[in-house]
Design a protein that fits this description.
This is UvrABC system protein C. Keywords: Cytoplasm, DNA damage, DNA excision, DNA repair, Excision nuclease, SOS response. The chain has 603 residues and is an alpha+beta fold. It folds into five domains: 83 residues, 3-Layer(aba) Sandwich (GIY-YIG endonuclease); 132 residues, no CATH class; 110 residues, 2-Layer Sandwich (Nucleotidyltransferase, domain 5); 172 residues, Nucleotidyltransferase, domain 5; 57 residues, DNA polymerase, domain 1 (Orthogonal Bundle). The chain is built from 21 helices and 19 strands. The longest helix is centred in the middle third of the chain and has 26 residues.
């Protein structure tokens, strides 16, 4: 039986083709499957009776994710790549194999048309892969008959059987002119690229003639051959013969949240998918641009040979900064992949919102599960804190309140930090906001919360505990909320030894922690957006007289923030090839903008 969390996710599955990835309690992918209809297929695992291996797999599923595709055939091809990449324990087919076959036209003297399972760097032409192996074989036999190349071992001094059957050009006994091979190869390539109308029309005529002559078996054979041709040459986006390593990024924005998808195409295959969701600070285009530049500056993050982005982003500037071609595809497979990334981004964000709408059904007993796991008496009220700043500028904190597992938004509070010297100092930020919050409650005689949660792990947790115990003489339990390397809720830290409290990720208590962490992060980010200087770094630079696109890109690439440019000397700025007068103007203008806002709110 599915957990309540899985029940909610099952209700949100799309009626679309695609692949699904089953995960265990540790987030490890244990099974990959494909489906014509993701909703029906994935639900069947939890709504039907299973035995043996399938029952064992389902019992270990704690979560799942999906990747939608445009067609069922694409789900076949994507499944191959995902199985070979992740090697899930419960998959037995394709895990160590080479996948589906290709049709290959060999290079060199007397080329051949054959089926292969490997793509080599041998100058040959490859078409595929083809998920319907039998259809590929039948199409190969058809092409041998219609566009013969070489079928025999060659240079036998006499015509081979295939030559007599019309399936060999005669390399077995004569020198076949290269022009004759080239003409046949051109026709084969055109056919395998989808130009099949003339041949299909001829086959349909033959099928009708055979039927009219009561040769029904022959008519059925031709009918099946037409079907095999359609299946074999149908175009797909998941795998192509273009071997350029490229990344494809698209995004979807709704209700202040940005959802993005990155498709990594390597060795002509969609090898990996990364998805992210976060609340926006600036407009979506600025957020996406900042994310992309930071993403590719991470350690061990290799740049692709080409980056494909939506037209709304500044592709020219991103290309200059990253040093790789960046473009927006207008047609063809890459354009289709851009659309597929957009569809997946939208579905991921819609799922998040719809899960939030179902929260009211998931809070029963959640608070008690948390307090029981911590060894605390039952409570009703949780206050959670998070900080937000961008490269140290405009530091703020925010607090959300949950009562009996439900958000009490009228009790939320915002704080502009005023005493923090190093704006990225998590300890100082935490001490200030905790001191201000609970000093005020003490003065006003207000009721204290049953539990305080800090989004930031042991640093914030210990800083909060220090203020409460040593300055305010308060005994309020403080818990640290920890995220994993995928920025998702992992577990809690608690106690003098900061030990981990591993909640069951399928439990109501875990889901409540996840929701609190998401909510306080969202609230802090949105508040920071409102207090942050109106324009982004790029916009601020554009407002300075004498700063054009080239100068702006130099500054963004070298420094990355207003504070860092303001701290640079005029000579440092000049060293980038900027004249003295403009460098002075940049320095003066940005020094003013880098001043820390001292206002405060909701003390």
């Amino acid at each position: 039986m599915a957990s309540e969390y899985l029940e909610h996710k099952l209700a949100l599955l799309p009626d679309r083709p695609g692949c699904y990835l089953m995960k265990n309690i540790n987030g490890q992918i244990i099974y990959v499957g494909k489906a014509k209809n993701l909703k029906n297929r994935v639900r069947s695992y939890f709504k039907s009776h299973h035995d043996g291996k399938v029952a064992k797999m389902v019992s270990e599923v704690a979560d799942f994710e999906t990747i939608i595709t445009a067609t069922n055939k694409e789900s076949f091809l994507l499944e191959v790549t995902l199985i070979q990449k992740h090697k899930p324990y419960f998959n037995i087919l394709l895990k160590n194999g080479s996948g589906y076959p290709y049709l290959k036209i060999t290079s060199g003297k007397d080329p051949e048309l054959k089926i292969t399972s490997q793509i080599l760097n041998d100058g040959a032409y490859y078409f595929g892969p083809y998920p319907n192996v039998y259809a590929a074989q039948e199409t190969l036999h058809f092409l041998w008959k219609v566009y013969p190349l070489k079928r025999c071992h060659g240079h036998q001094g006499r015509p081979c059987l295939y030559y007599h059957m019309g399936q060999c050009l005669g390399g077995c006994f004569r020198e076949v002119p290269q022009a004759e091979y080239d003409a046949q190869i051109k026709k084969i390539k055109s056919f395998l690229n989808g130009n099949t109308a003339a041949i299909k029309k001829d086959l349909e005529t033959q099928m009708q003639a055979a039927s009219a002559n009561l040769e029904f078996e022959r008519a059925a054979e031709i009918r099946d051959l037409i079907h095999y041709i359609q299946v074999t040459v149908e175009k797909q986006k998941i795998i192509s013969n273009d071997k350029t390593p490229r990344d494809i990024i698209n995004f979807y924005l709704d209700k202040g949240w940005l959802s993005l998808q990155i498709f990594f195409v390597r060795q002509s295959r969609l090898m990996k998918r990364v998805k992210r969701m976060f609340p926006v600070v600036d407009d979506a285009e600025d957020e996406m641009t900042a994310f992309i530049l930071q993403f590719y500056q991470q350690k061990n993050q290799l740049l692709p040979k080409e980056l494909l982005l939506p037209a709304t982003l500044p592709t020219k500037e991103i290309s200059e900064i990253l040093g790789i071609p960046v473009r927006t595809p207008q047609r063809g497979k890459n354009r289709d992949l851009m659309n597929m990334a957009l569809d997946n981004a939208k579905i991921s964000l819609d799922e998040k919102f719809r899960l939030l709408e179902m929260d009211s059904q998931k809070t029963t007993g959640a608070m008690k599960e948390i307090t029981d796991a911590l060894g605390l008496p039952a409570g009703h009220k949780i206050e959670a804190f998070d900080h937000s700043h961008i490269q140290g500028s405009d530091p703020v904190s925010a607090m959300v309140v949950f009562v009996n597992g439900e958000p009490a938004k009228k009790l939320y509070r915002k704080y502009k930090l005023t005493t923090v010297i190093d704006h990225a100092d998590e300890t100082a930020s935490t001490k200030e906001v905790i001191r201000r919050r609970y000093t005020r409650l003490l003065k006003e005689g207000e009721t204290m919360p049953d539990l305080i949660m800090m989004d930031g792990g042991e640093i914030q947790m210990n800083a909060a505990r220090d203020v409460l115990e040593n300055e305010l003489d308060l005994d309020i339990p403080v818990v640290g909320m920890v995220k994993n390397d995928k920025h998702k809720t992992a577990d809690l830290l608690f106690g003098d030894d900061d030990h981990h409290i591993n909640l069951d990720p399928r439990s109501q208590g875990f889901y409540l922690v996840q929701r609190i962490q998401d909510e306080v992060h969202r609230f802090a980010i949105n508040f920071h957006r409102n207090v942050r200087t109106k324009h982004s770094l790029s916009s601020r630079l554009d407002e300075i007289k004498g700063v054009g696109p080239r100068t702006r890109n130099k500054l963004m690439k070298e420094y990355g923030s207003i504070n860092k440019i303001a701290q640079a000397t005029v000579e440092d700025i000049q060293s980038l090839g900027i004249n003295h007068a403009t460098a002075q103007l940049i320095k003066v203008s940005l020094q003013k903008q880098a001043e820390v806002v001292k206002d405060s709110s909701h003390d």
